[in-house]
Amino acid sequence: MSISPLPGDASNDPADDQSGRFVLQPNGRVRPLSPHLQVWRFHLTMLGSILNRVAAGALSFGALFVVGWLAAAAFGPDAYAGFTAVMGSPVGLLVWFGLSLAGAYHLTSGIRHMTWDAGEGLTPKTATNLTVVSMVAAVLIVAVFWGALFLTGRVVL
User: Fold this and answer.
1) In this structure, are residues 101 and 142 in contact, taking their beta carbons and an 8 Å threshold?
2) How far apart are CA 70 and CA 63, in angstroms?
3) What is the DSSP secondary-structure string of 22-61?
4) Gap between the Cα atoms of 118 and 110, Å rounded
5) Within its chain, how far is the Cα of 72 from the centroid?
6) What are the pLDDT digits (tens) for 47-71?
7) Mean pLDDT, rounded, of the chain
């Protein structure tokens, strides 16, 4: 009969640890040290998570442009014309394109997370496939959206 190691065994005793796997917390408790980036093998779901956080930050920054648009509308026709001239320039359109890409990816990644929260798609292969689908879907959404804007003449360069 095999006996599993107990907390007092030398294999799990923080006092005998020479590997640096344990750390003394401010409350005096000894806890295992969390693994760091050197321990984990990079995979696509990690990239998806990082991109989702970047997209959220970009959308937070982009909210300032929406506030600027509303403020320009409130300050009258001259301010609004100035704002639309700047944001309708190629650089301004690039900003709006980036914000729409961030919004589309944040949406599709949110759907991916809701799927995971429902307990579905948690195997490594399925999780990777869902991440790829969320990235591709975001690019397709933005391509269709901006294609429609250019084809209808609402946006011109």
Assistant:
1) yes
2) 11
3) EEE-TTS-EEEPPP-TTTSPP-HHHHHHHHHHHHHHHHHH
4) 12
5) 30
6) 999 999 999 999 999 999 999 999 9
7) 88
Hunting for tokens 């990082």 — which residue is that? 50
Locus of tokens 């990777």: 128
Instruction: Please check whether residue 80 is in contact with residue 88, taking contact to mean a CB–CB distance below 8 angstroms.
Output: no
CA distance 24 to 21: 11
Who contacts 101 (Cβ-Cβ below 8 Å, separation ≥6)? 55, 138, 139, 142
CA 28, distance to chain mean position in Å, is 35
- Return the pLDDT at 40: 74
pLDDT of residue 42: 85
pLDDT of residue 114: 97
Total count of residues recorded for the chain: 157
**Inter-axis angle of helices 90-117 and 44-74, nearest 10:** 130
H helix intervals, the chain: 44-74, 77-87, 90-117, 124-151
Q: Round to whole Å and give the CA distance between 131 and 138.
A: 11
